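dumping this here before i forget
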Amino acid sequence: MVSGPAGNSGGDEVYKNLPNNCHASWFRDPGLRRLNIGILLVFSSATANGFDGSLMNGLLAIPAFKEDLVDRVNTSILGLIIAAISIGGLCALVPAGYVSDKWGRKICLAIGTSLMIATSIVQALTSGPWAFLATKIILGVGIAFILIPAPALSTETAHPRNRGMVTACFQTAFYWGAIVSAVATLGGLYIKGSWAWRMPVMMQILFPSLQILGLFIIPESPRFLIANGRKEEALNVLAKFHANGDKHDALVVYEYSEICEAIEREAAFATGSTWKLFISTPGNRHRLLICLLVGVMIQWAGNGIGKSATFGSGNITLTRHSLVLPISNPRKRRRYRPRLPSYDQPRPPNLERNPCTRRRNRRRTLWPPSTVAHQRHWHALRILRHHSSERRVRQER
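structure:
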């Protein structure tokens, strides 16, 4: 019998040392293989976010899209259309969180994916900028309903020995969606008529469809089940996917006890708690500030400029001429777009070599080198852009 997790700060080390009825290689174990395939399909939520978030940038480079929508509105309305997904996501932020906690991660994901598939089809068949704006806002609502529960579901169902790798890999799936979006819009330049932009828009159903398939494979979160009084069901899930059905497996017993104890502590602490707790003590205010800054920094990393301006209509003020790339041909300009997300896409990390899972390499130690690397990357791009612009001026002379 394994003792409970109370007072244990080295949970990762305990998981590595506990005996477990699973093969060391997950792809050779039937339970882990099924579980990880389901988690991989749930990664489609981040991929769908990358596809939808990068789509407008590509559509703005398609002449047919400019004729059908862009030329019919001013730059202010065009900026509103570009920001529509974020507006919809902001409106659905709180409701999606409540649905995920009350009815389950899978229910919330199912609502979001169904909404995205239906809205993508309507958007591809619609006409006019205002209808396009409305469908973009609804898509933003759908994205919020998949992005809030998906990381929790994948992390909470993952095997403890794979959890660090799963957590580290989730957001990197964004770039695969951005790459597919860039290739789809590049292909649209070779299609005549309005289907040049309708085809990439219709492709928004691709990754949500994969996620629906994943919902039939991945189980509900054990943490959610225990929090809602379905402890026996949670134990069955842990035993099936983490120990091939052995309810008395040492790792399963420890993991089940750990989740139960954590939820009991949270429930005791939540009694009588209000929103004022966020600002009641210096420590809570410090944590709230960290949460806010992390969200701001994720969105303040240049991704908004890249999505809406760099290769789309041309420049930061959304005029009709190219400022960032001195290339007037839209097909040639779009050929550069698929390369950018691929530069940011890291290789899938090995769990044993992943710095996030090593005790001596805490997550905060990864921030300075990654920030310096990104700054050097952007400075290099600016230098290349400057030299290309000078070369073009010399050729014109």
